[in-house]
Amino acid sequence: MLLRYFYDEKLAHASYLIGCQKTGESLVIDASRNIEQYVETANKEGLKLTAAAETHIHADFVAGSREIAERFGAKMYVSDEGDENWKYQNLERIDHQLLKDGDTFKVGNITLEVMHTPGHTPESISFILTDHGGGADRPMGIFTGDFVFVGDVGRPDLLEKAAGYSGTADQGAKQMFTSIQRFKQLPDYLQVWPAHGAGSACGKALGAIPSSTVGYEKMFNWAMKCNDEAAFVKALLDGQPEPPKYFAIMKHVNKVGPALLKNVTVPVEEMDASALHEWLKQDMVIDTRSAAEFAKEHIPGTVNIPFNKSFTNWAGWLVNYEAPLYLLIEEGQLSEILIGLRSIGIDRIEGYMNVKTALAQASKLESYMNVEPVEMQEAVEKGEVAVLDVRNQSEWDAGHIPGAVHMMLGTLPDRLEEVPQDQPLLIQCGSGVRSAIAASILQANGFKEVKNLLGGFSRWKKDVPQLVK
């Protein structure tokens, strides 16, 4: 048997390729939309992509299973658990099998047994793997999807917060409690292969280790130690981070099926800044440079989302999926940026321009200041600036600058009318990263007097402890 692990740092997403070397067949579990990585590995190992399986209808990325099925005639294995709201659609022309608890299917000499593990979502299933080709008569491991992570379990509130299904969070937490009791009956030696790692919004305390064992999780995963259902439900729902806005879109896309990449718009490269002026009239233009470079000089009206590990997440929060998107990028970035944006279904990328070309041709540039806490202490004390805190709710609750206005970054474009308009703005987050994005959004929308707090609230607490609430 062959097992390969793939990890997308921008989505904290793990996927797996399982191959039976004797028969040349292979299966991808929880594939990302960028299937070229699986194609390359399968070819290298002399395998054919014959199957793709999903543990549930994902909310945080576009699944690549249908892309694999369409391109290679592979068979799809997906859940048939949950009610009518959580059934896959438009599978008629794809070879597929709907799975229930206890079902099994094979890839060569490898058997996967289906275990229904609701809680994160009603249709969630896990796959228990046994390698008969290696002579085993007992399972080796379990692919848990978003059910059990290293050190945590999947959040049950996404249906309510992101997809709008009122009242489902409490029910999901109770289902998760029941699923965990069943998980704890599995052999301790069984390896645990989850679909996410640290940084994913599908849980609140995921570990950064790629895999674990059932026995280890039973000893050290907080969720395995709680034997009272009511206490477990409260602990699981408490403190969950805000789910990105795009999660609701991803649920729908993965349920009905995404567009094939061969049918997705290919962005056009522009060399003339006159095109940029037209882009700004239509919708968002993203400058992907670092925050420091953007702060020094940028084209008025552009928004800065630096191309780093958090790029995909903030693009999902801030980009209008129904409008065209345009990019100002550095040399050699296009391919990776497109992979990142398309991984969360942002397909209307219609144009791009080298950012140096754009800056060189621009008739006007603007900037904003990065400031230290001690520089702003007096202005904050005298009320000469309005402080805008763009952190998450849990961070705000743990402490904030007195008099600050709280607007989580992802919600800022929809709440611009709430932003103080009669004073200069001091934008603040935890470290100065999110607030830099917020500063660009505000400037693009006419709030020109903005300053970004370097080091954010972490440095403010250290340098100006007397002004913390």
Could you please describe the fold and organization of this structure?
- It is a single chain.
- The chain is of the alpha/beta class and 469 residues long.
- 30% of the residues lie in helices and 22% in strands.
- The strands form five sheets. The chain has a six-stranded mixed sheet with strand order 1-2-3-4-5-6. Strands 7-8-9-10-13-14 form a six-stranded mixed sheet. The protein has a five-stranded parallel sheet with strand order 15-19-18-16-17.
- Helix 1 (36-44) links the parallel strand 3 (25-29) and strand 4 (48-53).
- Helix 4 crosses helix 7 (229-237).
- The protein is globular and about 70 Å long.
Short description:
With 469 residues, the chain is of the alpha/beta class. The protein is built from 17 helices and 24 strands.
Which structural class should the secondary elements be placed in? Answer: alpha/beta
Q: Report the total helices.
A: 17
Which percent range fits the helix content? 25-40%
How does the overall form come out from the CA principal axes?
A: globular
Low-confidence stretches: none
- Strand order in space, largest sheet: 1-2-3-4-5-6
Quaternary class: single chain
Strand portion, in percent?
15-25%
End-to-end separation = 57 Å
Describe the biggest sheet?
6 strands, mixed
Mean pLDDT: 93
Cα gyration radius (Å): 24 Å
Number of strands: 24
